[in-house]
Amino acid sequence: MDTAQLASFALIAAGAFLAGGMNALAGGGTFFSFPALLAIGVPPITASASNTVALWPASLSSAWAYRHEAMRHRRWALILIGVSLVGGIAGGLLLMGISNAAFSKLIPWLLLIATALFAFSGQVQRIVGWVKQKLGATVNDEASPGSIGGALFQLIVATYGGFFGAGLGILTLAALAIQGFDDMQDLNALKNVASAVNYTVAALTFIIAGAVSWPHTLVMLVTATIGGYAGASLARRLPALLLRRLVVVVGAALTVIYFYKTYF
């Protein structure tokens, strides 16, 4: 292996480590790993498939690192696993039925909505509660954690995850926050459970389809897994306010980047 090849593998290894860590912390890790693959000359479709498979174990390790927090909401965690599985499959089928041009136009808007929902989730919760009280309903019924409404809401998010992976963590956090979860560590734990299931469905699809570049994927798989566990461990020690601000910053950055790439 010559110097250029070593540099290429070092680049994707570093990108995958950062991606695994960022996905565990706040989401948006694909912004580091996918461009790294493109930069060394991997074709876009192969890069996307390889990136998904490479980040799959990182999502599993992040979910494992947060297992104690997730088990505080055991029933809702099991519901999340079910709806994420169904939504991941549905989203993948939807993706096969849309053109690349139409899909690329949707990306920045999807990210903008997700970031805004998370940033203002507290205000949205208060508005929803006020409306329900005015209508004579209780605050904790239709879209509360573990309810049918909450499960349907998360199914929509999971379908998005199968349809478009980038920003999934931020959108999942937004959906969970609006449903009434306010502890940042619980939010991260449940987000990592849902993301792990989504990544599993997508990764198995790409592997079966034979769309993966294994030499690149195996290198990224190792460093992304390490980064995912390190990121989850770090997230558990960060102050809740700092972690929430980090999520908003990552979401805003992704939104600006995709708007620029799409419309300029």
TrEMBL record:
One of its GO terms (cellular component) is plasma membrane. It is a multi-pass membrane protein. The chain crosses the membrane at residues 36-56, 77-103, 109-131, 152-181, 201-230, 242-260. Signal peptide: none annotated. It comes from the Bacteria. It is found in: Cell membrane. Keywords: Cell membrane, Membrane, Transmembrane, Transmembrane helix, Transport. Coiled coil: none annotated. It holds the Pfam family TauE. Belongs to the 4-toluene sulfonate uptake permease (TSUP) (TC 2.A.102) family. This is Probable membrane transporter protein. It comes from Candidatus Proximibacter danicus.
